Structures are given as C-alpha cells and as structure tokens.
Amino acid sequence: MSDETILxxxxxxxxxxxxxxQWIQLSIDLYAVVRSGGLGTMTDDVRQVLGRAxxxxxxxxxxxxxxxxxxR
Length: 72
Fold this sequence. Notes:
Elements: H1 3-16, H2 21-35, H3 45-50, H4 57-66
C-alpha cells in the first residue's frame, strides 16, 4: 500500500467519522513532514531550554510509573 493510498483512505475514514476537515489536513501535513524526514534533525534545544542534558524517554516512563503517574 502506497503512502498516497494510506493518506486518502485515512482521510476518507476520518471524514466518515465526522472529523473536522482542518484536523484531517493537519494530520496529512504532519504525516508528510514525518515521512519526508523533516523532523529527523537532532538539535540541542532540550539542553538549552532545561539547562541540562535530555533524559532517555524509557527512563522517564519508568520513573513516572514508579511514582504512580498512571495509577491515579
């Protein structure tokens, strides 16, 4: 199945479920950016904003689960 087929089928399904057209277009545009590698560039933004090195997401999830983040 091609990317175009996936996008068209997904958009049709969303329309049939009453998803607003603006949201459908946003989804299509985001998919295109991700698929093209447009978000593949690494930056130093997290370090600059937080003033520390970024954490590994797996470690973050483990710590959050240990603290009961999803058991409330």
